[in-house]
Amino acid sequence: MPVGDGSWVTVDVYGEPDAPGLVVVPGGMSDAHAWRHVATAIHAWPSVTVVNRRGRTPSGPLTHAYSLRTEVEDLGAVLDEYPATRAVFGWSYGGSIALLAAGERPLRQVIAYEPVVRPFGRDALPDLRAAELASDWDATVDIVNRQVAGLDAAHVDALRADRHTWATLQRLSMPTHAELAALNTAPLPDEMARQAGRVDLIVGERNQGTPPYGTSFDDVRQYVPHADVHVLPGQGHMAHLEAPAELAHLLNALGTEAVTG
């Protein structure tokens, strides 16, 4: 579907497009395809629509005017296209987009898994910019994993050893600098998700209270004082890849609660 600045956004739809549904907003270095296992395990909503945010093939480019505002407007275009949406779920950067969108339009339910807020990853911006200018996507993936996510050398080496996974990460890393810069320069409201009927925030058990994701999660909570907080046992930031069934189970439970509560 067309969005602003001459770009466009595609979606993957599971179930009946016109049925009451859940819209999923992936975060950085992730695309709609990465969420297929979670989407197919969700049954609390008759349809699941996964956004392939701009900057990811086959969606369009970020464009020079890209900002966090761009992402919120893109999500708004998706919600206009699917008016039967009952809930929005966002992961990481996508969680922040969902929470901000719910501050501008009424939404029945917003769910966010480890959303991030500035100054998340700010120290890595100069190195990410240099890698982007050199089109060095190998360096970009390394910077994200080491400097932003804080993974140790053994973990990064194991990722690099899987050539298919590393190549996929390189492809998905191209918008990283622009997205992280947008996150760190965007003005924030006094309260996020003000127009949401219900807000659920999820943190992985392994990340509770620890940087970078657990501490950023705690920062986000200050902007969503009316949210309910849930912990996904045994998981970290990449639950959609490492434990899709467990994450889908929690989303199903939260969706059912919203309907019956």
UniProtKB/TrEMBL annotation:
Lineage top rank: taxon: Bacteria
Keyword set, alphabetical order: Hydrolase
Keyword Cytoplasm: no
InterPro entries per UniProt: AB_hydrolase_1 (IPR000073), AB_hydrolase_fold (IPR029058)
Keyword Hydrolase: yes
GO molecular-function terms, A-Z: hydrolase activity
AB hydrolase-1 domain mapped to chain residues: 22-249
Entry protein name: Hydrolase
Phylogenetic placement of the source organism: Bacteria, Bacillati, Actinomycetota, Actinomycetes, Kitasatosporales
